[in-house]
Amino acid sequence: MKQRLEREVIAMRAAKELMDGDYVNLGIGLPNLCALHIPEGVIFHSENGALGYGPLVMQDEVEKADQHYVDAGARYFTPAPGMAIFDLVISFAMIRSGRLITILGGFQVSEKGDLANWNTGEDPLGGTIGGGMDLAVGAKRVIITMEHTTKDGKPKIVKRCTAPLTARKCVDLVITDLAVIEVTPEGLLLKEVAPGWSAAEVQALTEPRLIVARDLKEIEL
Known about the structure:
The protein has 221 residues and is α/β, with parallel strands linked by helices. It has helices at 7-15, 30-33, 88-95, 132-138, 199-204; strands at residues 23-26, 43-46, 50-51, 84-85, 101-105, 108-110, 115-116, 141-145, 157-158, 173-175, 179-184, 187-193, 210-218. The protein has one domain (7-218): 3-Layer(aba) Sandwich (Glutaconate Coenzyme A-transferase).
């Protein structure tokens, strides 16, 4: 069986999409790993009311943890000069302003950029949407990080989402353990593939037709 990218590597590749001066909100789970690889000058936003905070507290740094500084993913962070703390009303006004980039996880992404990321649809009581809907429709750029297929091998990039939708036509870029795919008006553009994988092999695990970029290359970090 061919090797796929580890979750840490997916996060590293997603972090490459950010640059000095960007404001970014990271979703729970895989997107939160991006915090370990964010370039200098990127400004963190947490939907529970924090902006411009410092690095996350690692497991071997518990002495740095402060109960007052916890992000929306329940991870402790360190204060930084100029950091702001505010209420949810102000936080969601920022989210809806179109100034943030968000990196989120996903259960399914459709060929039109529809996103399903809060409930698989198998459990009507499972999952909570939280701020996911606001981030999906309010951010200026939406990047999705996820595995390319489910545990039983079914495509997570589909023609039409069957899981409950978070938002329609909101996704700009999908980064998986097999590929980097851009959502364009013409369709899904395959820009990068995991080392050792071909475009045909990625297509075989993707439900909608992929447009192969002329400059297709292997994923680089």
